[in-house]
Amino acid sequence: MRHTTFRFALAPTPAQAAMLARHAGASRFGYNQCLGLVTKALATRRMDPQVRVPWSGFDLIKAFNAWKKTEEAGRLFVVAPDGTIIKQVTGLGWRHAVSAQVFEEAAVDLGRALSAHTEAKAAVRKGRRVGFPRRKRKGAAATASGSATSRATVERLAFGSVRVIPAQ
To answer: Partner of 51 for a Cys bridge, out of 24, 45, 62, 129, CB 3.0 to 4.6 A?
Structure first.
């Protein structure tokens, strides 16, 4: 069997680049929000051991889908002509601007990270020690491995397993 590596250079239009950036940001947001749901549930569980902590990818998808329609995710205050104020729960209003798959994949990625942390803590996992997952920051995506020159050519935007490389 022969393995071959391919390297692709993407040349997105400005509209496509904006869409890629929107999806990458939504993925980071979904990951961080799911991590927030986990840490909040862990803190609540210290007080009440009956609280269920979403830990697997499936549980995280369900928890995020429930959260994204709540008042905490988004609301509007509408002022009527007579001066009365009405609160409208909109949920995560911009969620329709990106594919729902983005949020699901982010939740599954966090589920894998939590699973690796659990296995490392129990000394079941082989390889380097894995700590509790951290929040993802903007511009902190991993770069490609290899020489220093190849690292410099890889843009810091990672979307799934596809890396965006500027055309030479």
So the answer is: 45
